Amino acid sequence: MLSETSSTGLATLAAADFAERLAAREPVPGGGGAAALVGALGAALASMVANYTVDKPRYAAVEADVRHALAQAERIRHELLVLVDEDARAYGLVSAAYALPREDPARADAVEAALHEAALPPYRTMVSCARALMALEELGQKGSRMLLSDVACGAHLCRAAMEASSVNVFVNTASMRDRARAAELERECDALLCEWVPRARKLSAAMTAKVRRES
Description:
The protein has helices spanning 15-23, 31-53, 63-98, 107-142, 148-173, 179-214. It is mainly alpha-helical. Helix 2 packs antiparallel against helix 5 (148-173). The longest helix is centred in the middle third of the chain and has 36 residues, at 63-98. It starts with 14 loop residues before the first helix and ends with a helix. The model is unreliable at 1-6 (pLDDT under 50). Residues 16-190 form the Cyclodeaminase/cyclohydrolase domain. It comes from Paratractidigestivibacter faecalis. This is Cyclodeaminase/cyclohydrolase family protein. It holds the Pfam family FTCD_C.
């Protein structure tokens, strides 16, 4: 099993190296880190669309809005890359807590605290993906018409990252003793899913329809 220190820097790995680590019989990176990385790719596509739009005379009227979307997308991309490693760090806390002797009176509280900590990176990934989708929605309206397919791809990736992250929240809340805290986190996740999964699907479908009409 990887130590907590050896899990750091996952987001800096080359794509092939990350995929190889993900495929290995090792606990990190796992689904939570993969979801955060997918979300970062979705945000990166938003940045790409914005970068192709700024400084174009055709889009001068929306330049300020596009630059704002670009700044947002870049912040979100960096947040999500940090969350790749935060997810691995949180897994290390859970693993260490469960490794405590069962007769240790501190074990139950340590496990509870670690489970709550482990639920936070995937929850934050969901929040970041919702914000990335908001930027993609704006770019779908104001970004370069040549990159509508990239808006659609970004929406697909952010939706997938959000749904995958929700599972990684629920796998931790399911084992928490504090059912009130667990239920609160689950409600917040459900609210994000209920609002943003349909919006992401609507956006990707709209962009795909425009691509097919304009191709």
